[in-house]
TrEMBL record:
Topology of this chain in the membrane: Peripheral membrane protein
Organism name: Devosia equisanguinis
Name listed for the protein in its UniProt record: sn-glycerol-3-phosphate import ATP-binding protein UgpC
Keyword match Hydrolase: yes
InterPro entries listed in its UniProt record: AAA+_ATPase, ABC_transporter-like_ATP-bd, ABC_transporter-like_CS, ABC_transpr_MalK/UgpC-like, Mo/tungstate-bd_C_term_dom, NA-bd_OB-fold, P-loop_NTPase, Transp-assoc_OB_typ2
Keywords: ATP-binding, Hydrolase, Nucleotide-binding, Transport
Family classification: Belongs to the ABC transporter superfamily.
GO cellular component, one term: ATP-binding cassette (ABC) transporter complex, substrate-binding subunit-containing
Amino acid sequence: MPDIILRNVQKSYSANSPKAVSDLDLHIGNGEFMCLLGPSGCGKTTTLRMIAGLENLSDGEIVVGDKVVDSPARAQFIGPEKRGMGLVFQSYALWPHLTIERNTDFGLRLRKVPKAEREERVTKVMKALDIEKYRTRYPSQLSGGQQQRVALARMLAVNPGVLLLDEPLSNLDARLRLEMRAELKRIHAEFRTTIVFVTHDQWEAMTLATSIAVMNEGTLQQLGTPNDIYDRPANRFVAEFVGSPPINILEIGAGHALDLAVNEWLRPRLGTRGEVGSVGIRPEALSFTTSEAAVPSGSFRHRAEIGGILPTGGSWIIELKVDGRIVFATTTEAPTLRGGETVWLHARPTALHVFDKARNRLEEADAALQRAASGVAAVKGA
């Protein structure tokens, strides 16, 4: 399937309403697994429906390969049935009166695919999704996860160049969602189908995607690999939306002891200070020890009090209090401390995410903190 390119895509439902999608530029490569991630109402489903041809653009254009499939300026529009894409909705939308086999080959029958080829393709995809043993059953006789596999099989049987998935796992329980994530990962590896997956679940996006487009209020906030999105969030929205427990945000100038401490620690390392608005530290990057001498050289540090210890099964969330300010750390080792004990919390320089007053990432700060970390490493090496 050729690449899919969205250029300056706009979508408004009325002249007086805010834009559902605004100034969206997106490049979806052949064979890519892209997740559109964001909160409800951010424009991700609208974007998917525009790619599918179920929504018309208000402005901009969508290009598939060398063919413009939607462009209001050129008065061009290619209907969804001619785009070679398969769409799986949140609901399974299976025919209740047809067997699983007939549901799976439904699209092939519409396309008048010869019987021998139809049976071969249906058998292959049913085996791949482990539903061949249910081929004579009806949807009501299957579990939710099995029905979701049938919905996917129906789309894969027609061999679409692009598979569009609109929150297909949200109706499943936690265990089935985990199984279906693994299934989708395997399907992508085996069929090499281009997949565009809409979700508000950050862990679905992080575990499935080769690239993630984070959206908010109709605009693209960041496009990158899962590691890019998590390790180098482009702004505070991305940093706070992705991550559980959420990132700790320290507001520069807020007046809390911890915020003042991180400000004083940053001052000699960053030079110019006026543009820094806040600093983020992810819970897993925040460590603590009972002795200040045990804090690694060059790390940001501050005295804190253990507020509470929350077991989550295999890991623990530690609540830390600093003069009424609460931050969270996580650990995979069973803590030996108790609530009320005093500790030194600390974080290495490169674990700090620095944002300006407009809430965007400060790249100069990244470089400065990297140099600070390198200096510490050099001293240790000497």
